[in-house]
Amino acid sequence: MPLSEKAIRRGAFVSVPDLVQAIESFMAAWNETPRPFVWTATVESIVKKLDRARAKLEQLKPGCTQPRRRKSE
């Protein structure tokens, strides 16, 4: 992970122009030495993960994801 990417992810910006400047600086640095994006996950592993998530969601009962209420005294 390039230093400039870390600076944007971990940076604290007090204004939108500061953030815009940080992004533009990152893009300028990235474009000097661009690298192609390479997928590391296989299609099969992604499909398996989706299947597990779908199965888990189907097990949920309606309303079970609602915030818990405090017991009244």
Give the averaged pLDDT, no decimals: 79
Helix percentage range: 55-70%
Oligomer: single chain
**Gross geometry:** flat
The secondary-structure element order is: HHH
- The total count of helices amounts to 3
Classification by helices and strands? mainly alpha
Q: Largest beta sheet, briefly?
A: none
Termini gap: 53 Å
Low-confidence stretches: none
| Count of DSSP strands | 0
Radius of gyration, whole Å: 22 Å
| Beta-strand content bin | under 5%
Overview of the structural elements:
- It is a single chain.
- It contains three helices and no strands.
- 0% of the residues are buried.
- The protein is an all-alpha fold.
- The protein is flat, with a radius of gyration of 22 Å.
- The N and C termini lie far apart (53 Å).
- α1 packs antiparallel against α2 (16-32).
Would you summarize the structure shown here?
This protein is mainly alpha-helical.
List keywords for this structure.
flat, 58% helix, 73 residues, 0% strand, mainly alpha, 3 helices
Give the helices and strands, then pairings.
Elements: H1 3-10, H2 16-32, H3 43-59
Helix pairs in contact: 1-2
